[in-house]
């Protein structure tokens, strides 16, 4: 059982660089929280401060309500799994998992019980006598997890544990880790720069950029209601399409003007834009590739938000097709039905599902509606 509380946490390195700025987060017991963001955004630094491997420059870290800023790493009851899982090559799987317990002078029969229980959970029972070199990448990663599990820690910290695995194994291990979280009922904090991993694993995601938390939410909310332009662009693959658009009022109707194209806004979004004083201003409009369509149904529903464009690239991925084109100089991607007849070089009529358009302030980059 463990809850964590990070209050106004800062990390300033001796060279003066601020890697983490005013990080605030409450993590409930049994939560699976993901820290995600581009390289260098401060994810690992934050995790290492929680582990006690890095000093906290400012702020308070609590585990189960107790301040642990000055508690030694070994006394924090935390286990960390790294990306280079560094197993001892000369030891068997069993000994690799038992090693930490032996060091702590845990009685032999208890070690045996703990190692076998971890091996059962991780499906490693048949591999206990093998050496690491006789294991696959995924099996080695499971042993590394096993080493953490036998310690029965309050909190698991995982720093890109899957980044050394190939694509297929990563997907497999992702499912394993989800199941593990359920079985152990443990609190897990997991660092990755891979937004797909974040979206599929976490119950809550912390998106970071330049040492600053951008948004903390469930995967679904991050996807459907990003707080700012960065989160909108970072979460989702292929990326959300962005374009500059001027907010224009004509009679009762409000349009987004993108170059020579006028895209009619639904009344709800129009109302918010007007109320917030955006009439006549340029905003950043964002729309996900699945909300750009060449289907008859969408074209008839959103005739007032349609335009024609030449396909630059047609990409068939099996269950879906990506069409790449330009709209007034802005690069666009449409994710369409594979039965589409559109091909590279064709002029195609597209409609935007305007109920799903996101609008951001050009200066602050914050979401307007
Ligand atoms: P990655 O995904 O590449 O591991 P990250 O988000 O985990 O990135 P951190 O490792 O937390 O990033 O690093 C955050 C920033 O702090 C980076 O810009 C890094 O260069 C800087 N940094 C890390 N360690 C030190 C140090 N000892 N001294 C000065 N700056 C450091």
From TrEMBL:
Biological process terms in GO annotation: carbohydrate transport
Gene3D superfamilies xrefs: 2.40.50.100, Nucleic acid-binding proteins, P-loop containing nucleotide triphosphate hydrolases
Coiled coil feature spans: none
Domain ABC transporter: start-end pairs: 4-235
Highest taxon listed in the record's lineage: Bacteria
A single Gene Ontology CC term: ATP-binding cassette (ABC) transporter complex, substrate-binding subunit-containing
Keywords assigned by UniProt, alphabetized: ATP-binding, Nucleotide-binding, Transport
GO molecular function: ABC-type transporter activity; ATP binding; ATP hydrolysis activity
Keyword Transport in annotation: yes
Pfam families named in the record: ABC_tran (PF00005), OB_MalK (PF17912), TOBE (PF03459)
Protein known as: sn-glycerol-3-phosphate ABC transporter ATP-binding protein UgpC
Lineage of the species this protein comes from: Bacteria, Bacillati, Bacillota, Clostridia, Lachnospirales
